[in-house]
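Recap for those who missed Tuesday's class. We walked through two folding examples back to back. For each one, the amino acid string is listed first and its predicted structure tokens come directly after. Nothing is annotated here on purpose, so try labeling regions yourself before you check the end of the notes.
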Amino acid sequence: MRSRAGFSLLEVLVATAIMGTAVSMLIVGLSQSARNAGVLTEYDRAAMLARGKMNDLLLDADLPFEGNVDGRFDTQSGGVESGWSAVLKPFEEPPNAGPGTVVLQEVALEIWWQPQAGQRRTMRLSGYRPVRIPIQAAL
């Protein structure tokens, strides 16, 4: 009996098919991971912009008692078209509250951004701040 060293053609073809399948699955997994990292970066940037804008709005003494304000992010958005809008309204008013009464004002903020090859995405958050009822709001 003679012993053969080496592999047959069939064994080589099966091994090549298995390796090809494994490598293609690895490439698909890496591609999906890179895509997910990009989406997470977008949401992280949006959360950072939302926190900063909410802090600005909560501290801004010139905001209306009720109404809407909006704007755009120019330099902070990393080249992605983005903006914000906020709805301001009294959250709780005591009965018979008059001008000068301190009440809670709700600031409902919505951040939006438009990735270059994607659909518009949004993030919403709310904050509350104490404000005095102005004279014109009580009339």
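Example two. Treat it independently of the first, because the proteins are unrelated.
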Amino acid sequence: MCWKKLLSNLIDDDPNGPEQKLGFHDIPWPISAAYRDKPDRRTRISLSLADLTQEAIVDFLFPATDTPTDSSMPPGADKKERKDKLRETFLRFHPDKFEGRFIKHVKETDRDAVREAIGQIARCLNSLMGENT
């Protein structure tokens, strides 16, 4: 599931709207493994906390093909784009913001794993943002 679809499916403002419960695997985690092609729609991709590594996040956010080859890029533009991408992703996965906005829609049985994954992603992104300064 992508963020656009996730956001459109959740009805925060309508208390009479349908209750949407998400599982751990329904969250659009920032790693390529979360988006692998599935043999059919009923097949779930098996992800775990171990898959949410800093290297996997970097590979997803900054694929090797994103490296600019255009020499007309202004100096520092690549660094600014990287910083902006990290900031955007951090805001999306910020533990407090995620908790307030989404956790009520997560199945009770998956909430601890989702909270742990969000914390792990936030720590990785913090580390990456520190390297980017």
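Answers for example two:
The mean pLDDT is 79.
The chain has one domain: 3-61+73-132.
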